[in-house]
Design brief:
Blueprint: H1 3-6, E1 7-8, H2 12-25, H3 43-58, E2 63-64, E3 70-78, E4 84-91, E5 101-108, H4 112-115, E6 142-144, H5 146-151, H6 154-159, H7 165-185, E7 191-196, E8 203-210, E9 220-228, E10 233-242, H8 243-250, H9 258-265
Parallel strand pairs: 1-5, 6-10
Antiparallel strand pairs: 2-3, 3-4, 4-5, 7-8, 8-9, 9-10
Length: about 280
């Protein structure tokens, strides 16, 4: 069940005020894209908050107060002084409301609004079983499913200015070579992404890495699977995503490093795949 089915979060303006408080409370990072900074200042934060709640619900880690009047979650964020930041929800008393809870706001672990209802801090969301899956191993070979990447994602290439398949194929080879050099020097460039297939119920960690096409800003990210067989182990690039979507997906697990922040700062328009918003 999704957060918007369970929690009344308020209108976007009201929710943004709470996000503004969270941004000021938490350690500094990028919470929206430069292209929409004025119109949607918390795009990334909203996605992070909603999906973290959903994951915690799946893991049964949302904490209910003893009087059952309050619900809390661990946001996974820390204050500038390394205190845990929690979100607090109260029983929704609005007549006729379909949502059982009302979103109160964000609080530090020692704030009275939280400690008066809870004696312990809720657990963080977890997306992986093996920490090694989060780290790119530059000793392994990286292969590309070029036919699948190009043919199945041609619209994504076209949307960022590349509409010749032969040229895209050449650019992918160049980008792969440059990416491998960078990954040997900074494994954190490959960001972990939690993949969940709703049909097969398959869960796994994939990696997302920027594609450096010649003489062009980074617009796309490569989705990478680790392949293990009886005789070998290697990485396989299987598809691409708009770089903004890759950043939002990966932020659920880790805070991207400086190279990704630089890449995102150069994004001057938002992908159509991120244009849909569920909060009015």
């Amino acid at each position: 069940m999704r957060i918007l089915d369970e929690v009344y979060v308020g209108k976007k303006e009201e929710l943004n005020k709470k996000f503004a408080l969270l941004a000021n409370l938490a350690q500094d990072e990028m919470w929206t894209f430069r292209a929409i900074k004025d119109t949607d200042p918390f795009k990334i934060m909203r996605n992070f908050f909603f999906y973290t709640y959903n994951r915690l619900r799946e893991e049964n880690k949302l904490l209910l107060s003893t009087d059952e009047q309050y619900l809390s979650m661990n946001t996974g964020l820390l204050t500038k002084y390394d205190q845990e930041i929690v979100a607090l929800f109260a029983k929704n008393e609005r007549e006729g409301s379909k949502q059982a809870w009302y979103f109160v706001g964000f609080f530090k672990e020692n704030d009275k609004q939280f400690t008066s209802h809870f004696s312990e801090i809720p657990k963080m969301a977890n997306y992986y079983k093996n920490a090694s899956d989060l780290i790119y191993d530059s000793n392994l070979e990286l292969r590309l499913q070029k036919e699948h990447i190009i043919d199945d994602n041609f619209i994504r290439f076209s949307n960022v200015g590349f509409d010749n398949k032969e040229l895209i194929s050449v650019f992918l080879d160049v980008a792969k070579e440059k990416l491998e050099k960078k990954l040997k020097r900074n494994f954190k460039l490959a960001l972990p992404f939690y993949y969940h297939n709703t049909e097969t119920k398959e869960d796994k960690i994939q990696l997302l890495a920027p594609l450096y096409f010649p003489s062009a800003p980074v617009k796309l990210a490569l989705v990478i699977n680790k392949i293990k067989t009886e005789t070998s182990e290697y990485y396989e690039g299987i598809t691409i995503l708009p770089v903004e979507l890759a950043y939002m997906n990966s932020r659920l697990i880790v805070k991207p490093d400086e190279e990704w922040a630089r890449i995102m700062d150069e994004v001057d328009s938002l992908s159509e795949e991120l244009a849909i918003d569920k909060v009015e």
